[in-house]
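Quick start: what a row looks like.
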Amino acid sequence: MKLSIYNTLSRGKEIFEPLHPPSVGMYVCGPTVYGDPHLGHARPAITFDLVFRYLKHLGYRVRYVRNITDVGHLEADRDFGEDKISKKARLEQLEPMEVVQMYTNEYRLKMIQLNVLPPSIEPSASGHIIEQQALVEKILENGFAYEKKGSVYFDVEKYARDHQYGKLSGRKIEDLLANTRELEKQQEKNSPLDFAIWKNADPEHLMRWPSRWGEGFPGWHVECSVMSSKYLGAEFDIHGGGMDLLFPHHECEIAQTVAGYGKEAVRYWMHNNMVTLNGQKMGKSLGNAISLEQFFSGDHELLEKGYHPMTIRFFMLQAHYRSPLDFSNEALQAAEKGLERLFDGMETIGKVTPAEKSSVDLDKLEKYFFEAMDDDFNSPIAISHLFDGIKTINSAAAGKESMTENDLGKCRQFYHMAVRDILGLVPEKRDSGEQELTGELIKLLLQMRIDARKNKDFDMADRIRDEMARLGVEVMDTKDGFEWKLKR
C-alpha cells in the first residue's frame, strides 16, 4: 500500500508513513460556535470525515481530535475587538456558554445529517484554560514572548532569528513587515506581526479567567497547540483545516509549539479549499453564508429548492478537497441526479440475472477506485470509476454483459463498502424500508437528546427526536427514560 498525501508544508505529495503504525493521530480545527453552521463548515467536516473513514478502512487505528473554539476568537481574527461568542451573547441576551451549547448542539446535529462520523475526542478551548496558561508560561520562560499591560504577546521577530516563520504559508518575514501597517489598538505590541497568546480582559469582556497576568483569556491560536499535544502527543501524523486557517492561525500554531515545546509536532499538514459564491469565499464574516438548515429546507433567496444532506455531501465529494468549490443551484441539481443514478445502479445489481460465465473484470474496477483514493484521497476520480461500474451493471441487467452469482455478490459488497462505508453516502431508506444509520450515530443522537433535556433545552430535545423520526428511528419516552427502535 502506498497512500500519498499532499503535505502543505512541502507543497507536494508524500508517501504517508504514520509515526506509530498501525495508529494514526489526526487533529482538525473545528468550528467557532457562535452561529448556525453553514456550507463552509460542511467542507472541512466532510473532507476529514473521508480521510477518517478511509484510514480506518485501510486498517489504521485512528484517534481523530476535532476541537470546538468557544473562547478567544476575536472579530476579524485580530488581537483586538470583541470575542465572537461574547458578541453573540450580548446581542441575544444570553450567557456565553449558553450560546456555545446551543450552537454546538446545532453543529453536531447537522454533522449527523451529513453522515459525518463523530471524532474520537471533541475538546473545547474553554475546558483547557489551565493547559493554555501553562504553554504561555513556557513560551515566556523560553524568551519568545513578553508581557504588556496584562497581555502576553508572541515575539515573532525574535522567533524568526533562529526559526523559519512563514514556512507553512510560504511567506517571508521581511515581506510581512513591509506590508503590515501599525493598526490602532495594537500599539502596545512591539511589532504588528506579534500575536496575543494571552489577552487582558476589558471590563465589559464576558469571558475571563484569573491568571498571574490578571483576568483575561487565551489567544485564539494557543488552543490548538495545547489540545493536539495533550491528546495526540508531542508528535502526531495529520493536522487539517480550511485553507483560510493556513495563515495566520496554523503558522502561529507552529511557532508557538516550537517556542513552547521545543519542536514541531505535525508530520503532514492538509488544507481543504474554500466553498465560494460567485468566486468569493462563503462565510459569516462576509455576509454571504447560507446555513445548512437553509440548504436542507430551501428557505433562502439564492436557493431554488431544498436539498437532501446526502446531495450536499455528494456535491462536496465530486470535487477534490484541495480544489475550490463554487456553489450554484445547477451544480447541486446535477449532484442530486448523479447521486440518484449511483443509488439506482446499486439497486440494479439485485436485478441482474446470474450467468455461468462473467464478461466483466470487477478486480479492475476495485483497483482503479483504490488507486484514486490512495492518491491524496481523490474522491472525484474514485466516483468516476464507480459510475463506470454502474454502466457495466446496467449493461448486465440489459443482457449485454454477463456476471456470475459470485461476481454479483462481490459487486454488491464492493459498492456497499465504497459508497456507504468510505464515501459515507447513504440512501434515504434501505431496500427494506429502514434508514441506514450506524449504531454509533444513533448513540450520539440519543446522548445529545439526554444532554438537551438535562439542560432544559426541550426545543432541541424535540428537534432531535423529530429528526431521528425522519431518519427512521422512533424514540419513545418512558417513565424510566426512553426506548428506541428502527421503523420498518
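That is the whole record. Residues 439-486 form one domain. Confidence is low (pLDDT under 50) at residues 430-436.
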